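Lecture notes, part 5. Sequence design as translation. It can be helpful to think of inverse folding as translation between two languages: the language of shapes and the language of residues. The source text, in structure tokens, appears below.
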């Protein structure tokens, strides 16, 4: 055991003189930084209280604890927040069924995740039917809004991205140029410009006097933007499919759509899992930009909460909490992506 540890230290920490110096400097830096951070983060921290008068030298997590429901649900009415929890539970069940490798109905689960799940979650959140009180979208917010925006955008953008990828490889010039122009236009402008255009220009294409919900406009803008990136990711996967696969499917008499549905797209998705997950992680972080167009996501709610006279000056704790939440969510998605890659690697070998 001792020999194993000594070998690991020699191989990973001191494989050469230069690496050994870097390792020693890193250890010294960690020794200087970790004790004060630990004191601020936990040892001197305050976890419970009604206002900032109880805060001391360490972090004042009482602020986060006091505003936790606001950070998660935004201004969603307190008596109706069970609907947000139930919608989140429904989403989690569908995601687990779609992600479970041994699920024999996995393809059907993915289709239900993209179709039935948004219908159920939307009905629960909006209400107005089955005796559920209507809750306008301007009262939605917090972390639940970031999750909702990510899920709704992926549900719309992924199928649209596949269509755009196929269109860009089409033999018909008009379709190929149209899809190429859409993809390059959306990839060539910043997301903020797309969001502002969705806020300002979308109502101009509707009949006069027609109102268009602000949240739906944000979802449309995000979906178009993400679809352009997903289209290029899927197209890279399509280009990785051997030409013989197309020739074999043609020999079997499969149509264009049959070839792509049964043979090409399943293999292309296996090749592009890291790229798709990377785009979803970027999207989850980019949902914080909607606070600029008047939607109060987690960062927007924190920005409002730190202006409360009872908790003035506690922005550091709020933003550390937000960073921790985003890191946990993005790291979990990254771990799932790596698990899929390892599973695909084992199948290939």
């Amino acid at each position: 055991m001792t020999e194993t540890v000594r070998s690991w230290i020699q191989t990973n920490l001191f494989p050469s003189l230069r690496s050994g110096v870097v390792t020693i400097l890193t250890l010294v830096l960690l020794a200087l930084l970790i004790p004060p951070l630990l004191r601020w983060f936990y040892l001197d921290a305050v976890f419970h209280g009604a206002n900032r008068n109880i805060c001391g030298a360490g972090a004042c997590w009482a602020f986060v604890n006091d505003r936790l429901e606001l950070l998660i649900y935004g201004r969603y009415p307190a008596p109706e927040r069970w609907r947000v929890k139930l919608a989140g539970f429904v989403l989690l069940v569908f995601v687990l069924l779609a992600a479970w490798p041994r699920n024999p109905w996995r393809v059907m689960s993915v289709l239900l995740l993209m179709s039935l799940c948004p219908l159920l979650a939307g009905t629960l959140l909006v209400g107005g039917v089955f005796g559920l009180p209507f809750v306008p979208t301007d009262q939605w917010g917090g972390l639940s809004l970031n999750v909702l925006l990510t899920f709704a955008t992926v549900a719309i953008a992924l199928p649209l991205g596949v269509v755009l990828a196929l269109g860009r490889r089409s033999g018909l010039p008009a379709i190929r140029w149209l899809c190429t122009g859409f993809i390059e236009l959306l990839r060539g402008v910043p997301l903020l410009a797309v969001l502002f255009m969705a806020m300002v220009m979308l109502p101009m294409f509707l009949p006069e006097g027609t109102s268009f919900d602000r949240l739906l406009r944000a979802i449309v803008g995000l979906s178009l933007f993400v679809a352009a990136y997903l289209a290029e990711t899927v197209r890279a996967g399509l280009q990785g499919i051997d030409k013989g696969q197309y020739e074999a499917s043609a020999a079997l008499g499969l149509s264009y759509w049959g070839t792509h549905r049964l043979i090409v797209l399943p293999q292309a998705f296996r090749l592009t899992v890291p790229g798709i997950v990377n785009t979803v992680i970027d999207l989850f972080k980019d949902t914080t930009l909607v606070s600029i167009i008047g939607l109060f996501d987690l960062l927007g709610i924190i920005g409002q909460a730190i202006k409360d006279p009872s908790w003035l000056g506690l922005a550091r704790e709020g933003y550390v909490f937000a960073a921790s939440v985003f890191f946990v969510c993005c790291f979990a998605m990254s771990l799932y992506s790596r698990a899929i890659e390892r599973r695909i690697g084992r199948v290939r070998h």
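The translated text above is only one of many valid answers, since several sequences can fold into similar shapes. The two ends are 32 Å apart (CA to CA).
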